[in-house]
Amino acid sequence: MPISTWLMSLAVAPYAVDYFGDVRGVQLSSWVYPQERELGYSAFSAHTRPVFDFFSDRIGPYSYEKLAHVQANGVGGGMELASSIFYGYGDNGPSRQLIAHEMAHQWFGNAVTEADWDDVWLSEGFATYFALPYTEYKDGRDAFLEGVRRSKTQALNFAIANPGSTIVHDNLADIGSVIANGAQIYQGGAQVLHNIRGVIGTDAFWAGIRAYHGRYKDRTATTADLRRAFEEACVAAAATCPDQGEDLLWLFDQLLKGGGALQVDATWRYDAPSKQLHLTMTQTQTTGVVRMPIEVQVTTAAGASTHVLQLTGRNQKFTIASEAEPTGVTLDPDAWVFMRSSIAAGVR
Questions:
Q1: How far is Cα 241 from Cα 231, in angstroms, rounded to an integer?
Q2: What is the pLDDT of residues 293-339, one digit of tens each?
Q3: Which CATH class is domain 5-107?
Q4: What is the CATH number of domain 262-345?
Q5: How many alpha carbons lie under 13 Å from residue 110 in its C-beta half-sphere?
Q6: pTM greater than the 0.70 cutoff
Q7: How many CA atoms lie within 13 A of 187 on its CB side?
Q8: Closest by alpha carbon to 236, among 273, 204, 260, 259?
Q9: How high is the pLDDT of residue 171?
Q10: What is the pLDDT of residues 135-157, one digit of tens each?
Q11: Closest by Cα among 29, 95, 104 to 67
Q12: What does the domain layout of the chain look like in residue ranges?
């Protein structure tokens, strides 16, 4: 079984060991310090199988013959070693989110390993993001969106404060700095995947993920390899994927190689005689104008409707037909876009 050298491990300690079954032919176990066996045993046995099934069903088959959860001194959070995940956790034990993040690495970072440290987001951004769809599966859409928005806030705070930093490194010389921009690599990388999903649609997104994993499983891959997988999935999806998803170089370059983040200030007013909503969006970031499809939700007494607007300029005006005066207008209601935005009603 091909395994990148940095993912190999050896743990030595007087462990208490729990072999708690197997799933799809893969042996499951936990290795914890004897004095904490109850805490570790219960968490690992409760969460491992459902997380494993979730990722296997949506991404593809697991690569290794076993999956061991190993308690280890000197590890903060988790370390995604191939088939043996090392954990350092507090008095409450390993959380479901931590276990899901580290297990996601077995598919991305381990089975599919970034070919160069410049692309470390292919490991950490993926693991951070894929723990969120599992949250949706277990806890519902609202919990998922809450997690997305929390992640987005962390990533935006860093990106806006450090506009010269990018998610994909530019020929990184110092390996010690590979995750110096951690919020950008982990949370920002997760937001890149969510933004791509918003542009090409959920079905094409998952098809692209399965193709990428299947093609590069037990191999190395690059950001360009991922982009091509999404583009091919979009072409195969035909009418259900927008034309702009068939060549995603523009989006990948903006999100991964451009510094800062999209920032939008918007105002709207309703013209009752023409039954039209007039919306103005202004890009306020100092790092250059970007292109982005943005959903706008218009709510009236009769209900809500969603419209996709193509943002391409510094200052743009849009018109949306509306039979009744809106009670609210929301930019990006499902938090697809990596941006900071505000919207307010203007003068009527």
A1: 10
A2: 999 999 999 999 999 999 999 999 999 999 999 999 999 999 999 99
A3: alpha beta
A4: 2.60.40.1840
A5: 24
A6: yes
A7: 18
A8: 204
A9: 79
A10: 999 999 999 999 999 999 999 99
A11: 29
A12: 5-107, 117-257, 262-345
